[in-house]
Specification:
The chain is mainly alpha-helical. It folds into 2 domains: 471 residues, Cytochrome c oxidase-like, subunit I domain (Cytochrome C Oxidase, Chain A); 183 residues, Up-down Bundle (Four Helix Bundle (Hemerythrin (Met), subunit A)), CATH 1.20.120. 67% of the residues lie in helices and 2% in strands. The protein is built from 25 helices and 2 strands. A two-stranded antiparallel ribbon has the order 1-2. The protein is globular, with a radius of gyration of 28 Å. The protein starts with a helix and ends with a helix. Keywords: Cell membrane, Copper, Electron transport, Heme, Iron, Membrane, Metal-binding, Respiratory chain, Transmembrane, Transmembrane helix, Transport. It is a multi-pass membrane protein. Its main location: membrane.
Length: 846
């Protein structure tokens, strides 16, 4: 039964954006924000291309003096940083935020305000990095910022712009990962089991988890380096017990997974486009999925692949070589599956598929050379030569940029309602393909002749001038190809032929709606029972003639789908489904347009700017204001029509609110704990790394931490964990008195731990700048204090809700508050006890 016209009109109006400039700022819907991410990243891409052309012009001739050494270093640093941090990863996230809800049958992402906040953090972080040009202090230590070149002795304030701006970018990336993972797990269409999920959605699920366990490590590394630079900490100062190699280990734990975070969504694009242009299902879906999972997991075992010449022992390097080969095998599985899919059909050579075919040549070239540099003896010869430059451009341009342009062509009708072009797009692709190979094939040869990378010039006697001149000519052809391709896309986005809802005859859910996609996405969520639901739809009637009869489960899914048709009409809402089989579990209220994420991002950016200006009190004040905004954000209750909610609950036979793993909030909290766990793990690794390479521990004859008093201090925290566990038993038994008592005891013990531990640290016989041991000791304890304070704040908020008695003790939202606050508190207790073992007990034992 279809809803009446008034309900449909109200539903449509609910999902409309606000008009005007402030309406644009307040936007939280995933589709405009996803486009905003991609457009912003393309602007940064254009800037990076200009810088690349500048470098290639400098290297066109031997002994050229177009750029000075310092200027070249600055341009090189900003080119690499822009391409990797400001273009590739944000574009991947923007494409995912736009596509994922459409691919899985959702109306929006799980946390629309978080999407808005992430975009503003990304934009402001990029502006902070580029504002270094205005002050004449451009980062110049390379996009990897190796210490000691990026330390306080050898670099200026430009690196502070880089570190602090990059910190905002990492926060944006982490929020996008939590958003994407939660949306995929909990917002899939009714019946969309994991085996029915498109491969591109699988790639985003994999990279979402990869981001949660890699980006926090870079965020920590940038914080530690900034502490070295701003306050005299000693993490990376070898003369004070620190280690320059520690930065490389932390950086590449992030850096190599980042390559696959960029590459895997590109493979998802390819696995989506090829079946459509061939007109058949993807071959070897389970094998491709296994390759994705293997790549995501093994990519964390590759970081020393970049450090074969750093002097580490040969035995562990053999394991990293084997891991590199394993990833190459996983990529090969996907390549052969795509070829098999093409082989069995009659491909339509549309522009998206032509970009994919160009990808095959360039990426295979990069994959083969990747196996070469993963072999230690070969890497020892070509490390830090232009051979490596050509290799990773093969992987990043061939493996990512070309599929991304194919994705733009393929989904342009859904984004704009217009079709892309043909003639100029093919011309652009031709220039890109020819220009790319003319640019980078000579660099392979020059690298084998010994040309170093990251140099601003070279002597004529090396005999590589002709190779570099050819490479520079190719770079201009390549840039011209990109300009033609992107200009054609922009022109056709506004003036192209109007597109049908499904111009490609695709099989995934996004082609079931009008083009461009309406603000609400799906008016009625479709029931899914196949990998290609439009090619093999679920029968719409149980008496549908030749169609197979539907079982009771399918009938249940259809009833849920029908109940959500233009519902809820008075507020934004989406069906929450089971993470395994897509069975309806609840309805989640989604926020509408709001300025809160924007102002929070502004305040956090101001805190960063004040820190950059060394106005630390003002920075701390802005940090406190940020905490107030976050508290307001977390405590704002959703607004909805209770009468309509009751009707919807009755029709769906699922609750409007739920708790535990049924909810997106629980999964977001779990993602946050994963981030905190990763940071703590990286800190623990740093502690033992510094300990392993120190002759004496503690360094510099510093006294061992006093064991007896510290045991009593951390016993307070352990007791707080026990009391909170007893409180959790109380709320499971619905005893409000026991819950209040247990949480109050936990708060008292937690506050006592914070006060006593701060007194102990203040009375320590050494400060955090004494040496590397002192620095890591204080930072470990500081991390525990911050997590304990966060846990106490959440427990306090939950206790206020319990005492207020404004909600039934069985109310799902109250239970969810208790579950989330407990989750973070128990992590804080774990971190505290682990810190005691690492920083207090182990030094007495070893």
């Amino acid at each position: 039964m279809k809803p009446d016209a008034l309900i449909e009109e109200r539903f449509t109006r609910t999902w409309l954006s606000r008009p005007g400039f402030w309406g644009w700022i307040a936007e939280v819907n995933n589709r405009p924000l996803g486009v905003r991410y991609m457009v912003t990243s393309l602007v940064f891409f254009a800037l990076a291309v200009v810088m690349a052309l500048t470098m290639r012009t400098q290297l066109a001739l031997p002994d050229n003096n177009l750029l000075s050494p310092d200027t070249y270093n600055a341009v090189f640093t900003m080119h690499g940083s822009t391409m990797l941090y400001l273009f590739a990863v944000p574009f991947v996230e923007g494409l995912g935020l736009y596509l994922i809800p459409l691919l899985i049958g959702a109306r929006d992402v799980a946390f629309p305000r978080l999407t808005s906040f992430g975009y503003w953090m990304y934009l402001f972080g990029g502006l902070i990095i580029f504002s270094s040009f205005l002050f004449g202090e451009v980062p110049d230590a390379g996009w990897t910022a190796y210490t000691p070149l990026s330390g306080p002795k050898y670099s200026g304030i430009g690196i502070d712009f880089w570190l602090l701006g990059l910190g905002l970018l990492e926060i944006a990336g982490i929020t996008a990962a939590i958003e994407i993972v939660t949306t995929i797990l909990k917002f899939r269409a009714p019946g969309m089991a994991l085996q029915h999920m498109p491969l591109i959605a699988w790639t985003y699920l994999v990279i979402g988890f990869m981001i949660l366990f890699s980006f926090p490590v870079l965020l920590l590394a940038t914080l530690l380096l900034e502490l070295d630079r701003a306050f005299g900490f000693q993490f990376f100062n070898p003369s004070m017990g620190g280690s320059s190699l520690l930065w490389q280990h932390l950086f590449w734990w992030f850096g190599h997974p980042e390559v696959y975070i960029i590459f895997l969504p590109a493979t998802g694009v390819i696995s989506t486009i090829i079946p459509v242009f061939v007109g058949r299902r993807i071959v070897a879906y389970p094998l491709i999925l296994a390759a994705l999972l293997i790549t995501g997991f093994v990519s964390f075992g590759l970081w020393t692949h970049h450090m074969f010449t750093s002097g580490i022992p040969e035995l562990p390097m053999l394991f990293f070589t084997a891991a590199s080969f394993m990833v190459a095998l996983a990529a090969g599985i996907q390549i052969f599956a795509w070829i098999a899919t093409l082989w069995g059909g009659r491909p339509r050579l549309g522009v998206p598929l032509l970009y994919i075919l160009a990808f095959f040549y360039i990426f295979v070239q990069g994959g083969l050379t990747g196996v070469m540099v993963a072999t230690m003896p070969f890497d020892w010869q070509t490390h830090d030569t232009t051979f490596v430059v050509a290799h990773f451009h093969d992987v990043l341009i061939g493996g990512a940029v070309l599929p991304f342009i194919a994705a733009f062509h393929y989904w342009l009708p859904k984004m704009t309602g217009r079709l892309g072009g043909e003639f100029w797009d093919r011309i652009g692709l031709g220039f890109i393909f020819v220009g790319y190979n003319i640019t980078f094939v000579p660099l392979y040869i020059a690298g084998l002749f010994g040309m170093r990378r990251r140099i601003y010039t070279y002597p004529e006697e090396m005999g590589i001038g002709t190779l570099n001149l050819i490479s520079t000519f190719g770079s201009y052809l390549l840039a011209l190809g990109f300009a033609i391709a992107l200009a054609s896309l922009l022109w056709h986005a506004r003036r192209g032929r109007p597109a049908d809802p499904d111009p490609w005859k695709g099989g995934t859910l996004e082609w079931s709606m009008p083009s461009p996609a309406p603000p609400y996405g799906f008016r009625r969520p479709l029931v899914v029972g196949d990998l290609y639901p439009l090619w093999n739809p679920v029968p719409s009637e149980s008496h549908s003639g030749d169609s197979a009869p539907r079982d009771a489960y399918t009938e249940e899914l259809e009833q849920a789908s029908a109940a959500m048709d233009c519902r809820p009409a008075g507020w934004r809402g989406n069906l929450v489904t089971d993470g395994l089989n897509g069975r309806p579990q609840a309805v989640q209220s989604l926020p509408g347009p709001t300025l809160l994420p924007f102002w929070l991002a502004v305040v956090m950016t101001l805190a960063t700017v004040f820190f950059l200006a060394q106005q630390y009190m003002a920075s701390a004040a802005m940090g406190f204001v940020s905490l107030v905004f976050i508290g307001w954000w977390l405590t704002r209750e959703p607004v909805f029509d209770r009468e309509e909610a009751a009707v919807l609950e009755a029709q769906l036979q699922v609750p409007l609110w739920s708790h535990g793993r049924h909810t997106t909030g629980w999964w977001a909290a779990a993602g946050t704990v994963a981030v905190l766990f990763t940071v703590f793990g990286a800190l623990t690794y740093s502690y033992f790394y510094l300990r392993l390479y120190s002759d004496h521990w503690p360094q510099g004859g510093l006294p061992l931490p006093e064991l007896g008093s510290s045991l009593l201090v951390f016993a307070l925290l352990a007791a707080g964990g026990v009391s909170q566990f007893m409180s959790s038993l109380g709320w499971r038994r619905r005893s409000r008195t026991w819950v209040v008592f247990g949480m109050a005891v936990t708060l008292v013990l937690g506050v006592g731990f914070v006060i006593v531990q701060m007194m102990v640290l203040h009375a320590a016989p050494f400060g955090p700048t004494a040496n590397a041991y002192a620095s890591i000791f204080f930072v470990l304890n500081g991390f525990v204090l911050l997590t304990v304070l966060t846990g106490l704040a959440l427990l306090g908020g939950a206790l206020v809700r319990v005492i207020a008695k404004q909600e039934s003790f069985t109310a799902p939202r109250l239970i969810l508050w208790l579950q989330i606050s407990e989750m973070l508190w128990f992590f804080a207790v774990f971190a505290g006890l682990a810190c005691f073992l690492v920083a207090y007990l182990v030094p007495h034992l070893l």
